[in-house]
Amino acid sequence: MKPEKYFFKDDGSIPNNKLPLLLYKKAFSERGDSGAEWLENRFSENNWRNSWRNGVFSYHHYHSNTHEVLGVYSGSALLQLGGEKGEKLEVTAGDIIVIPAGVGHKNLGSEDFHIVGAYPNGMEHDMNYGKEPERPKADKNIAAVPLPEADPLLGKNEGLPRLWAEA
């Protein structure tokens, strides 16, 4: 399974990352609670832990200290990725999005939208909003975030480890 890759440049507010955001379309077939459980188990098997269930905030934000994976187990949403100058992508149940540290994300509108989120090595995430005082520390944090050992969906030998090593 090959993901779609999206690259985002620093837009002055949202730092983004040289690593591509990965979007796996129609990556799994389970829906509802069984879909959420499937995602939690798959992510955990690949050492993406500290999972939660919810949605995506309706304002721009990013995490400077960790990468993040979002698995959509219900509904659909239009997400703004990479800040105001980024991409608007429709995601639906069955999609998995791997967001590099520093890449902005925002929910522009959704219907019955539910996701499981998780972080490599069970990291605790910080919250940044594209405000000027965040940048010096956020830039240092983003540069220090290690590459995950495994893709949250495909494991150690496929997907993210190869794709991000090339970036």
UniProtKB/TrEMBL annotation:
Family matches, as SUPFAM superfamilies: RmlC-like cupins
Which organism's genome codes for this protein?
Autumnicola lenta
Q: Which Gene3D superfamilies match?
A: Jelly Rolls (2.60.120.10)
Kindly provide the name given to this protein in its UniProt entry: Cupin domain-containing protein
Q: What Pfam families does this protein map onto?
A: Cupin_2
CDD domains with a match to the protein in the record: cupin_YjlB-like
Record-annotated Cupin type-2 domain positions: 59-109
